[in-house]
Predict the structure.
Amino acid sequence: MAMHPVAGAGAPPASSVHGNVEYDDFHWDDAAEAELQAFEAAYASASASAKRRRLPDWTSPSPSPSYHLHRSQNPVSSGSTPSWTLTPHTPQDNVRARRQQISFSGKIVYCRTPTEAEKAATDILLKIERMKTPGQVSLGFDLEWRPFPRRGEPPCKVAVMQLCMEKTLCYVLHIAHSGVPPILKTLLEDSSSIKVGICIDNDARKMLNDYNVCVQPLMDLSTLANVKLASPKRWSLASLTEMITCKELPKPSNIRMGNWEADVLSKQQLQYAATDAYISWYLYEHCRLFQITRLKLSL
């Protein structure tokens, strides 16, 4: 809420001279000086406390400026009452409150050899069979590869595949080293599980070009969200996460655009990769339960 000086008892008149007191002859008496210093100290303490306990932006329809207290350089007073002015902070105060970040907190199974990739695929297929759900089992699916090939080289192949179908376990397969064993190819092409993700058609096309694997069936989360939320928009994984969970999905560029062909992935890379697959699965499970608010068909 904006603050303004209030005219009232003790407020100075608008003229530059009050009575016989000129600016150059004015001196604060001890009582007025002590009162002003106490006021300034209390205001500074309140401002510091407010910064430490900043409320989120949605609590106010528009950013409210905070203020600095300034003693008038040329004070005019009636008796010993001081005057002061309030001036707003700079636009730095409009920085958006940071949301809580979301991250996968379950177990990450890292597979970098053919044997490990085969075991992971076998485990997932067995879980799908045991679930025996009336519909398809959802499988969070995402890929990573080095975005910029070396000069004169063709585009980089998919280096990492992430799969997740529950909140406690994610698989990160380093297929740059393990390749795609036959049992993993079977899983990816099996119609008993629907692979879900953002722009998943592009990922499926990339797998077909790089490894001759036809990933299917597919569900693009952006398309699903537009139907369920009746909000035609090209969603990113981060923006849809914020919409559904009110949390921030971190996307640090040094990880996202890092070397996914490294001999061994770092802990940060594994966490990033697992979180993307987990969030894809999580958002699908929530979106599919939403009632369709409006559906427009294009003829």
Remarks:
- The radius of gyration is 31 Å.
- Residues 23-94 form one domain.
- Strands lie at 67-71, 84-88, 107-111, 137-144, 160-164, 169-173, 193-197, 218-220.
- The chain has two domains: 23-94, 107-287.
